[in-house]
Amino acid sequence: MPRTIARSLATATASLLLLVGCLVLSGTPGAAAAAGARHAAHCHTGHHHKHHHRARHHHRTRHHHAGRHHHRARHHHHKRHHHANRHHHAKCHRHHHKRHHHKRHHHASRAARVLHAAASRRGAPYRWGATGPRSFDCSGYTSWVYRRVGVHLPRTAAEQSRATRHVSHRAARPGDLVFFASHRRVYHVGIYAGHHSIWHAPHTGTVVHREHLWTAHYFVGRVR
């Protein structure tokens, strides 16, 4: 009896050992495969994260460079626009200054010629209705003087006042016409000579001469 039990125990032990060995042999490849799969998945995930990080860094770098390029382009455009505006304003200022200088020179030149023509008839006698060159009335004298410089004025003092641009006493310049009126009726005209004086042909019994203005009741007309 004891021998039979011993044999049964030995057989059972051998079978158990054989079963365990089979399980170990059959389970090892599966475990290795699972471990390999987990390792591969981990590597893939790490590679994916690394690639995503590089892509985000590259995108940020491109965006940063694009922003810097856009800022430089805007700054360059603004600078060019500023220089263009400065050049345009400088050109306009030079053109305006040139026109203003030319206009002043033209007026000064014409005024000098007007005063020269006015002085050339000094001493000519006054005669009503006369237009020169030997004798004059007041408006005949002013129209004759301006014809010498190529400007044709109307015949009478009233018409000449309507043909000029009125300016203030303080703005009067040599060569302007000076009108005298009573009750809005213009009755006399002379040529402003500067220093508060005029050239004129006053009335019967007088001659053309330069005279200091004797009243403040006058107005000034500038010949266009």
From TrEMBL:
Residues 62-81 are annotated as: Disordered. The keyword NAD does not apply. One of its GO terms (biological process) is proteolysis. Residues 1-33 form the signal peptide. Pfam families: NLPC_P60. Residues 108-224 form the NlpC/P60 domain. GO terms for molecular function: cysteine-type peptidase activity. SUPFAM superfamilies: Cysteine proteinases. The keyword tRNA processing does not apply. Keywords: Hydrolase, Protease, Signal, Thiol protease. PROSITE patterns: NLPC_P60 (PS51935), PROKAR_LIPOPROTEIN (PS51257). Gene3D superfamilies: endopeptidase domain like (from Nostoc punctiforme). Belongs to the peptidase C40 family. This is Cell wall-associated NlpC family hydrolase. It comes from Nocardioides panaciterrulae.
